[in-house]
UniProtKB/TrEMBL annotation:
InterPro entries: DUF817 (IPR008535). This is Membrane protein. The keyword Transport does not apply. It comes from Kangiella geojedonensis. The keyword Transmembrane helix applies. Keywords: Membrane, Transmembrane, Transmembrane helix. The chain crosses the membrane at residues 27-45, 52-71, 83-107, 119-136, 142-159, 180-200, 220-237. Pfam families: DUF817.
Amino acid sequence: MPVSLAVFLLLVMLITRYWYPIESLHRYDFIFVAAVLFQLVLLLFKLETLKEAVIILLFHIVATVMELFKTSDAIQSWQYPEAFIFGIGNVPLFTGFMYSAVGSYLARVSRIFDFRYSYYPNVGLTVILVIAVYANFFTHHYIWDLRWVLLLVTAFLFYKTRIHFKVIKTHRSMPLLLGWFLVALFIWFAENIATFANIWIYPNQTNGWQMVSLSKLTSWYLLMLLSFVMVTLVQGVKDLSRLKGFNHCQDHGA
């Protein structure tokens, strides 16, 4: 398995929740510095490519814009309760790494496990869909929340799509929609760990921690879709079904 920025960040968050002896540096700022150093180590030892670093930068930009909106005084979807210096507005800078960790992981596993696809939908349609998904993260505060419509459109576009991944020497496959759900579920578990570690809190957690609602899975699923399409725009899509004589039944595990 590839070294994961997401796992590293979760470990740092949990450890510093219970033991953080550096009085001269805010905990949030320490997490930011640790994330930057970890990212540099990945690049230095070529565990991550420059193309993957570009993906991380894109995620930072997209995530920071959304974080600034969601934590604004007018919206307050969640908040970062501790002090920090490295930040913009109400948003500490390490938050960009939490989102880019998802993009980084997707980019690296797609290379390591040689991701290929069958019956991948038109790329232009996927771009339009994720633009609508991203917009809905903002607009649902003012107009109707279209997440269920977007999920139905996602199911319609990707219901035939399978992801093919190499395990040792054999490519196996699974429905892409299922793969996204499994990763979204993992992110939901990670979110519970992060809120427990006081990294950010929702309004209902102000007076004491409680588990994040399962309804957040829809948000993480849509974020997975957004992340995935962003990665494919940089890395491209290897669609096996476009190859002459393709038969997905020949793929082990299909």
